[in-house]
Amino acid sequence: MIAFWILAPIMVLAALGILFVRKAVHAALLLAVVMLSLSVLYLVLEAPFLFAVQIIVYTGAILMLFLFVLMLVGVDASDSVVETIRGQRLFAVLGGLILGVTLVLGVGQISLGTVVGLDEVNKDGNIEALANILFSRYVFGFEVTSALLITAAMGAMVLAHRERLTPKPSQADLAAQRVRDYAQTGLHLGPLPPPGVFARHNAVDTPALLPDGTAAEASVSRVLAARGTVRSAPRDVEAVQRSIDYAPDTIGDKPEDRTEGGSD
Amino acid sequence: MDSVTPFIVLSAILFTIGSVGVLTRRNAIVVFMCVELMLNASNLALVAFAKQHGNLDGQIAAFFVMVVAAAEVVVGLAIIMTIFRTRRSASVDDASLLKY
Asked: Across chain A, where does the E strand assignment appear?
């Protein structure tokens, strides 16, 4: 029971966190906290088999699938806070509160009687007891489950598969397309510029500078730009310039030289 | 032996939080996670009642819920991926073509 009183607040806080965090990845990690705590509660409730299944299936497989899809969908998949239906959030919270209070009060009112406990049933081990029921009384449900699983696998394959409608462009086609783009829109013919190389930073997040001193947008990865971690090269260059001009001995020692250009 | 009522109350609270999340969040993946939270909460209640009544039917039911949840997640995430591929967005507000 001690485990319950430790884990219950953690679970409720983590579950509330899912409601409030903006990034989907954080929500997935909070969900992992809830699921792992839940598996420990299964152990408290004398269900060692479900404890293992909860960790393997939920935390191992399902949550990994969530994270996998989040990686595919992209880093900029954070939730918008704009309310599309007016007052929807208020009514949702209100309805949720009513549901929660009703459920909790209702459950609190009834008395469940004495707990029988699973010691008797689990005499020969929980897994054996579960298997006895599963393969006798619930054997039909078990068989139907296999049909469900294979249907789900087929469905996922059909949904995720994309038929190629046009032939795959060859290297010659790509080159021709490049020259055509250059002729039509003046798009740069050569490869993208490499990121700026400044000795003070990891260069991939620092844009290269054009001859006039402005940053070349195309030189940093689109993903870094979406994440908002691109450094502003010109400011760095200015800082270096200043430190050279005014204090040639203390480059990098003054705190204001370490311009953190991130976040915008 | 102590009562299982606290477990049932916790399961009710988690279910409520999950349902509020389904109603308020915009990102389809987060909505899906909240559905998983609700399934987990109901599982907790099933396992708690299994202990209360001293038979394993509740645990078997929770086991089947897990199996169905696994199948559901596979198909659901495939659908979300397909939607994302066609509209470049995982927001539930953008998938509203049936309205018109």
From this structure: none
Closest Cα partner for A211 from A199, A229, A193? A193
Residue A227, min C-alpha distance to chain B (Å): 16
b/e burial code for range A222-243 (CB count within 10 A of at least 16 → b): eebeeeeebbbbeebbebbeeb
Which region among A4-8, A54-58, A117-121, B34-38 has the lowest average model confidence (pLDDT)?
A117-121
Looking at this predicted complex, what is its ipTM? 0.92
Answer yes or no: are the C-beta atoms of B73 and B80 closer than 8 Å. Answer: no
A149 contacts in chain B (CB < 8 Å)? 67, 70-71
Contact B62/A45 with Cβ under 8 angstroms?
no
Determine whether the interchain pair B4/A112 forms a contact, defined as Cβ–Cβ distance below 8 Å.
Answer: yes
User: What is the rounded distance in angstroms from the CA atom of residue B16 to the CA atom of residue A100?
Assistant: 5
The average pLDDT across B42-71 equals 92
Q: How far does A248 lie from chain B, in Å, by closest CA? A: 50
- SS3 label, residue A214: coil
Interface touch A12/B14, C-beta < 8 Å: yes
Question: pTM score, two decimals?
Answer: 0.77
Query: B4 φ, ψ to 5°?
Result: -95, 0
Q: Is B87 on the interface with A (CB under 8 A)?
A: no
pLDDT in tens, A62-114: 999 999 888 887 655 555 666 677 888 899 999 999 999 999 999 888 887 78
In this predicted model, what pLDDT tens digit does every residue of A209-241 receive, in sequence order?
777 777 777 888 877 777 777 776 556 666 666
Contact B44, B73 (CB under 8 A): no
